[in-house]
Amino acid sequence: MAVFLYQDGEMMPLIEVDDLYYKYGQEDDWVLAGVDLEVETGEFVAIVGHNGSGKSTFAKMLNGLLVPKQGVVKVAGLETKDKEEIWGIRQRVGMVFQNPDNQLVANIVEEDVAFGPENLGLESQVIKTRVKEALTAVGMEEFRRHAPHNLSGGQKQRVAIAGILAMQPQCLVLDEPTAMLDPVGRKNVMSTLHDLNQNLDMTLIHITHFMSEAIQADRIIVMDQGKVALQGRPAEIFGQLDKIKEYNLDLPQVTELAVRLKQAGVDISSDIYEVDRLVNELCLLK
Ligand SMILES: Nc1ncnc2c1ncn2[C@@H]1O[C@H](COP(=O)(O)OP(=O)(O)OP(=O)(O)O)[C@@H](O)[C@H]1O
Ligand SMILES: [Mg+2]
Q1: Which residues form the signal peptide (predicted)?
Q2: Ligand 1 in reach of 227 Cβ (< 6 A)
């Protein structure tokens, strides 16, 4: 695992955001209005927040696609405002977007995944190994000779993720990667994210509108009006029903069901965030 140290030997977070302000035009209101955040290497973080709260803008700050108007964004100690560091930052932070069709460039899966490492100027044997490893990591090795346009949405998105992995970033920022997928595709992409986090220690920042996905992260960050409004473990976040309402969020379906069952008189906990636990509690009912 890559660990970054300050000069005094203390561990440095992979991503450090300090009092970040951003707006698109000169006259506009701030879209990001004082974001403070740290993400450690190996963390799996979900970012949620209602439409327009600044999530996608924030995502683009993390690999220097946008740079702060005020404040600081650092990746592995490199500041995104520093033009000389942008290459190093882009290598460390890979971006995955909503629409897999916009992210695939070649007619054969393995050629698509090779595109990034080819642009890095790597030797062909190294590229071959990276492509194989990346496709294996997303469970798409057997499709390596297929045409991307014949794949399902979820498979395409996993190929797009492999294309980023082949450049060996330390962190993936995924902006609603499952929004255009069917339930099976969503499930497979989520399980790929878990594998990457657990097996490769990949740091993940996952922006999503699906609360059922957000609860799968180690930490949830709630954005509201360009700020971090709330952050904590999933149970800490969804335990605060008043805040969930205030920030226009939904409850995860499984929690909603538990709450409603309780309201209907069923003897069940209302703080249930996993399907397994709901099933267990229901099985224990007399
Ligand atoms: N390219 C742009 N030019 C001008 N304003 C923009 C641009 N992109 C986003 N905005 C504005 O910035 C604000 C935040 O948008 P952003 O896309 O970051 O929010 P979001 O949280 O990702 O929303 P969503 O949940 O709909 O994806 C919105 O008011 C939006 O209209
Ligand atoms: Mg967005």
Answers
A1: none
A2: no
